[in-house]
Structure formats: structure tokens, C-alpha cells
Amino acid sequence: MQASAEAIGLEPAERAPDGASPALDEGETVLAKFERLALVIGGTHEQGEGTLFITETRVIWLSAVDASLGYAAGFPTIAMHAVVSDEASGKPCLYLQLDNGEEGEGFAGFGAAPAADEEAEEEGEDSSEEEGLLAELRLMPADGSQLEPLFQAFCEGAERNPDFTTDEDEEGAGFVYNEDEALAGAAAAALGMGDVEELVGADADRFADPDEEEEGEEAADKPQPSGGC
Amino acid sequence: MLFYSYFKTLVGKEITVELKNDLAITGTLHSVDQYLNIKLNNIRVVNEQKYPHMLSVRACFVRGSVVRALSCYIVRKRERVRKGVRGA
């Protein structure tokens, strides 16, 4: 279950020493807490009742029954949330869809029907979709009056955690570089260095082939002088 | 900010939001923010069979980053706005 949950964007949640509250990142605080929420993953995997904690950057659900069971998701992972009537009980619940960022057929788990393991293998599907876990959750409160503040809390969490990179705004967004190399290159350019002869320096012999007497050395590692590279 | 300005003009109108996972939701646009997060009321799911758990949706919030496209009907003429930034 844990592996499938992680495949759809849910991380296992660690607890603080008191066992009842979540382990938080540095600077992270609990902004709101909702008790007695039953969690259902993927439409059918009931996780039982637990407590939901809302922090600045994520939501954390800890089981009230099983001290080793808990899930966390960052707000950017939550694609949408809605107040819906649960079809089984007819009671209102919070429905969420997750987006773990995978491209292809959209969200992981979607695009393919939630097939049983055997069926999925027969269809020759990607191993990551073998579980067929739909990337959707339902939070069912024991107290219906919690739904409105719960919905609001998720709205505010999403607004607090927007995606930052947009193609229009940032030129070269996503461009990967090595900061040290870039800085060294910039420093070299500033000093007017960059010409090979200048880089080689006065003692060009240090780049010559090793003498045959130096048997212990890894001759292959020594740089060969070339016409400029 | 071009999309945001346009979407603001659609507040109160009925629109259909398409998510990147092919979920399509029709509803009245309640609000939109600068990140194109969308809140809808009076919702119905377009492809109900695929998402059976989304019955009787009362209020809905869609994260801007997962919206693929948004459609609306203006005076019997259908206008479809496709977000080209992230690709389909």
C-alpha cells in the first residue's frame, strides 16, 4: 500500500515523539487541525479515522488507530479538491485529486482503469501502474460542519503554494548549471584569461607525457597536450 | 497576466475546465486568481463514468497548474482558450 501511495504523490508521514502530532520540517507549523476524518485512498482503500494537520506547505494525515500509519502531501501535489456527496453514505466529504507531476497519460494512475494486478500485467502496462491506484482521496468527517472550513483550508493552502516557474517570466528557467564552474568562468573572463597559452602558463612541460620511469603513476590520467580544447 | 485578465471577465459565467488528466468539469466560475487557480460552483462532471466518485459536487477548487484548457459559451458562439504555457 505504501509503495502505491507514494506512486500517486502521498509520502509516509513521520510522527513527533508524542506520537499524536506530525514530525515537522524546520520552520513548519501546524496552522489547522481537523479530527475524526476517515481517509479513503483510490476510491476503495479505506484507511480508517485519523487527524488531518494543515501546515504552511503540506497536509498530513495521521491514523487515530495505527500509530505507524500516516500520509503527507505537499499542496502542489493536490490538483483539485471539491465538496462532494459520498456515494456510499450520502454524506458530504472532501474529494481530492493528486498530481505527482508525471507526464504521459496525465496523473499517475489515471488514463488506465483501476485494474486488478493480474489484469494489468496481462495488458502489458507499465509496472508503475500495476497497482491501478487512482490518484484520488476522500476525507470523510464525522462532523459535517467541518467540511466548509476544511475546503477553505485546502483552498488557502493551494494559494499559499503556487508553482513558481513560468516560461514567460523567467528566461532560462530550468537551465541547469554548475555554480562553481560558472563563477570560475566568469572570474577567468574578468581577468582576461581564457586563451589556452595563458592557461597553460610558463611551464608547459607539466602537460608533457610522463617519463617511462614513473611506473607507479596512472599515466592515462595525465592530460595530453592538444591543439586547444 | 493575459490569461488571468481574460478569465476574470468570465466570473459568473458557465465554463468548462479541462484538467491535464482529462477530467472535465462544468460550472459557474466563482473566482480566479493570478495563478489561475479556479473556484467553481454549480458543478457537473462532464465524463461522469470515468469519475464515479464525483457525484453531487457542491464546490470545487482547481489548481492553476493542472488546467489544460478552459471553454465557455459566449452568445451561442463557443470560444476555447488553450493554455499553451505548459503544453497539453
From TrEMBL, chain A:
<dbReference type="GO" id="GO:0006821">
    <property type="term" value="P:chloride transport"/>
</dbReference>
<protein>
    <submittedName>
        <fullName>Chloride conductance regulatory ICln</fullName>
    </submittedName>
</protein>
<keyword id="KW-0539">Nucleus</keyword>
<dbReference type="GO" id="GO:0005829">
    <property type="term" value="C:cytosol"/>
</dbReference>
<dbReference type="GO" id="GO:0034715">
    <property type="term" value="C:pICln-Sm protein complex"/>
</dbReference>
<feature type="region of interest" description="Disordered">
    <location>
        <begin position="200"/>
        <end position="229"/>
    </location>
</feature>
<dbReference type="GO" id="GO:0000387">
    <property type="term" value="P:spliceosomal snRNP assembly"/>
</dbReference>
<dbReference type="GO" id="GO:0006884">
    <property type="term" value="P:cell volume homeostasis"/>
</dbReference>
<dbReference type="GO" id="GO:0045292">
    <property type="term" value="P:mRNA cis splicing, via spliceosome"/>
</dbReference>
<dbReference type="InterPro" id="IPR011993">
    <property type="entry name" value="PH-like_dom_sf"/>
</dbReference>
<dbReference type="InterPro" id="IPR003521">
    <property type="entry name" value="ICln"/>
</dbReference>
<dbReference type="Pfam" id="PF03517">
    <property type="entry name" value="Voldacs"/>
</dbReference>
<dbReference type="GO" id="GO:0034709">
    <property type="term" value="C:methylosome"/>
</dbReference>
<keyword id="KW-0963">Cytoplasm</keyword>
<comment type="similarity">
    <text>Belongs to the pICln (TC 1.A.47) family.</text>
</comment>
<dbReference type="GO" id="GO:0005681">
    <property type="term" value="C:spliceosomal complex"/>
</dbReference>
<dbReference type="GO" id="GO:0005886">
    <property type="term" value="C:plasma membrane"/>
</dbReference>
<dbReference type="InterPro" id="IPR039924">
    <property type="entry name" value="ICln/Lot5/Saf5"/>
</dbReference>
<feature type="region of interest" description="Disordered">
    <location>
        <begin position="1"/>
        <end position="24"/>
    </location>
</feature>
Automatic annotation (TrEMBL), chain B:
<protein>
    <submittedName>
        <fullName>U6 snRNA-associated Sm LSm2</fullName>
    </submittedName>
</protein>
<feature type="domain" description="Sm">
    <location>
        <begin position="5"/>
        <end position="72"/>
    </location>
</feature>
<dbReference type="InterPro" id="IPR016654">
    <property type="entry name" value="U6_snRNA_Lsm2"/>
</dbReference>
<comment type="similarity">
    <text>Belongs to the snRNP Sm proteins family.</text>
</comment>
<dbReference type="GO" id="GO:1990726">
    <property type="term" value="C:Lsm1-7-Pat1 complex"/>
</dbReference>
<keyword id="KW-0747">Spliceosome</keyword>
<dbReference type="GO" id="GO:0071011">
    <property type="term" value="C:precatalytic spliceosome"/>
</dbReference>
<dbReference type="InterPro" id="IPR010920">
    <property type="entry name" value="LSM_dom_sf"/>
</dbReference>
<dbReference type="Pfam" id="PF01423">
    <property type="entry name" value="LSM"/>
</dbReference>
<dbReference type="InterPro" id="IPR001163">
    <property type="entry name" value="Sm_dom_euk/arc"/>
</dbReference>
<dbReference type="GO" id="GO:0000932">
    <property type="term" value="C:P-body"/>
</dbReference>
<keyword id="KW-0694">RNA-binding</keyword>
<dbReference type="GO" id="GO:0000398">
    <property type="term" value="P:mRNA splicing, via spliceosome"/>
</dbReference>
<dbReference type="GO" id="GO:0071013">
    <property type="term" value="C:catalytic step 2 spliceosome"/>
</dbReference>
<keyword id="KW-0508">mRNA splicing</keyword>
<dbReference type="GO" id="GO:0046540">
    <property type="term" value="C:U4/U6 x U5 tri-snRNP complex"/>
</dbReference>
<keyword id="KW-0687">Ribonucleoprotein</keyword>
<keyword id="KW-0539">Nucleus</keyword>
<dbReference type="GO" id="GO:0005688">
    <property type="term" value="C:U6 snRNP"/>
</dbReference>
<keyword id="KW-0507">mRNA processing</keyword>
<dbReference type="GO" id="GO:0003723">
    <property type="term" value="F:RNA binding"/>
</dbReference>
